[in-house]
Design brief:
The structure is a single chain. By secondary structure, this protein is of the alpha/beta class. Helices cover 41% and strands 14% of the residues. α7 links the parallel β6 and β7.
Length: 289
């Protein structure tokens, strides 16, 4: 069984519609895929319909923008009740921060001599990847990666800070909505010191269920093995995934990293327990089963 628990569609910063994403996952030989668009559930309904049609198992999730000790951390939330008032309000606040950020980035880039406007950014809820795509289309850079490194990362001329939710509070909030949480690529890009093992232990005590270990941003095998050992010591679920964005990210093909079936079952067991404890009406896995 091949399981990929982290992918993105056009509902956030991927380049495929949810139906295209699910079809591509099935064609890539995946048995299970999760749709985890940033800070929203806009792709869930279409993805669920497509998964039922093509016969692939779909887990509905969200990648939530959070902060911990003044550093950005992405948190994967699986199977929460999307109508939970507290979760809905926090996601709306995050999205509003993203929406107001894009015009500020455009203004900063124009001050730096880059001729770009909001009309060049094609997205309902624009974020840094969409600004990066506009720079690619205009020939300012050749790729999203170059756009980020030259213009949009912290310290670069087009970077603008935005609101992100508190990590620990968000873990608890997702649990109250009946979902489970997994840290997304926590030690990627040399950021091990931002989330040391002691902090991960405290997040486990707050309700964290797992850690995404096998991810393209964890390039060093030693980093993966150390993080896997931390997860084992803390009894956290270990996941692996592509973080696929269609054409929006290179070297993140569907299924390039996968989650072991027994770890997936542990995640589903914890999701069932969280749903029962919350007494919320949470989404079920659809499609393949």
């Amino acid at each position: 069984m091949r399981i990929d628990l982290h992918t993105h569609s056009l509902a956030s910063d991927g380049t495929q519609a949810p139906t295209e994403l699910i079809t591509a996952a099935q064609q890539a030989g995946l048995d299970v895929v999760a749709i985890t668009d940033h800070d929203g559930t806009g792709g869930w309904a279409e993805a669920a319909e497509a998964a039922t049609r093509v016969g692939i198992e779909l887990v509905r999730g969200i990648e939530i923008s959070t902060k911990h000790r003044h550093h950005g951390v992405h948190l994967l939330a699986y199977l929460p009740d999307p109508t939970h008032p507290g979760l809905r309000a926090e996601l709306d606040r995050i999205v509003e921060g993203r929406s107001s950020r894009a015009p500020a980035m455009v203004a900063a880039l124009r001050r730096a001599g880059i001729e770009v406007s909001m009309d060049d950014i094609a997205a309902a809820v624009p974020g840094r990847p969409h600004v990066a795509d506009a720079l690619v289309r205009q020939g300012v850079v050749s790729s999203r990666d170059e756009a980020f490194s030259e213009y949009l990362n912290p310290g670069r001329p087009g970077y603008v800070n935005r609101y992100a939710a508190d990590l620990t509070a968000t873990i608890r909030l997702v649990a109250s909505a009946g979902g489970v949480t997994v840290l997304a690529h926590p030690w990627g890009r040399g950021r091990k010191d931002d989330l040391p093992a002691g902090d991960i232990a405290r997040l486990r005590d707050a309700g964290l269920s797992g850690v995404e270990v096998d991810h393209q941003d964890h390039k060093d095998p030693d980093v993966r093995e150390e993080l896997r050992a931390v997860a084992r010591d803390l009894d956290l679920v270990v996941t692996g995934s592509s973080d696929h964005h269609g054409l929006g990210k290179t070297n993140h093909e569907l299924g390039c990293n996968t989650t072991a079936p027994d770890e997936y079952e542990r995640l589903l067991e914890r999701a069932a327990a969280a749903a029962a404890a919350s007494a919320r009406r949470t989404p079920e896995v659809v499609g393949g089963r």
